Amino acid sequence: MLLRGGTSKGAYFLAEDLPADTAARDELLLRVMGSPDPRQIDGLGGAHPLTSKVAVVRASADPAADVDYLFLQIGVDRAEVSDRQNCGNILAGVGPFAVERGLVAAGEGRTRVRIRMVNSGELAVATFPTEDGRVVYSGRAEISGVPGTAAPVVIEFPGSGGPLLPTGQARDIVAGTPVTCVDNGMPTVLIAASAVGVTGYETPKDLEEDLALADRLREIRLAAGKLMGLGDVEAATVPKLTLLAAPRHGGAVMTRTFIPVRCHTSIGVLGAASVAAGLRVEGGVGQHVARLPATGDRLRIEHPTGFLDLESGIEYGRDGAVPVALRTAVVRTARKIFDGTVFPRPSGAAQHP
């Protein structure tokens, strides 16, 4: 099934319909998506990381969850399949897909699906409207980066209770640059845009074409990955890098996020959750950039095509030194685009990316 989840689009599969062997599964998915090829002309992929994604879903053996969700990022112009991160946008379609495939029975008026995110072992709960045993996709919820409106999918992430700062520090100097390393569902490195010589208001295209910036960000990402305990991240999609600038449209902060090389046209759900929590860290790089509300947990994160609203809070332990993340909730939308049979490119076909 092809669904739009949030501001991403992906192919959703039942785990039982894919090979059990990981290598065979990945080889098949590359052929399904049309990779490696910059246009993915021979598959389902949309020639961009945001539209080259896969969700693998199965009934969960975990009593705390209804379904297990494995996210796979499919390389566009490279034959790569990565499971090293979650995706909060594709997550928005997992609950509806579970109902569509009969893994979860539709409730009366709305359905609540408990999801175990296999990539990280964390839990999320998605709630969305259902009627007469079917998912309702039409509605009035609007999210930036998606035309029109759709039914709301409310996604809640209970606080893990784990440390928010993987390095144990509110601020680190990485490759000569002040950063705050955060993980509230997505390993993310927060950087003041001014610290790398840009304003933070440039278009994603302009930022991608800045070769000096690309070299600087690569150096920061590789060093931060080791500092965050992620090891060598040269071939990984995490950590993400988010540049911060003062808000322009009444939000808390303006962002430009690299995923990890391309600049996101908006911002990922889990990335935004990490940004929101990181902004509240005392002594972090966002402290003098962001404009936080005086009360409440709701924040508006501005990005290149609009904004994302979420609720996020942190608290400090008894020692007052190590913050932990509390509940995070966000409203997304999802839409079923296609349900049917995909015909993969023949195995062993010559590739000329």
TrEMBL record:
Transmembrane segments: none annotated. Belongs to the PrpF family. It comes from the Bacteria. InterPro entries: OMA_tautomer-like, PrpF-like. This is 4-oxalomesaconate tautomerase. SUPFAM superfamilies: Diaminopimelate epimerase-like. Keywords: Isomerase. It holds the Pfam family PrpF.
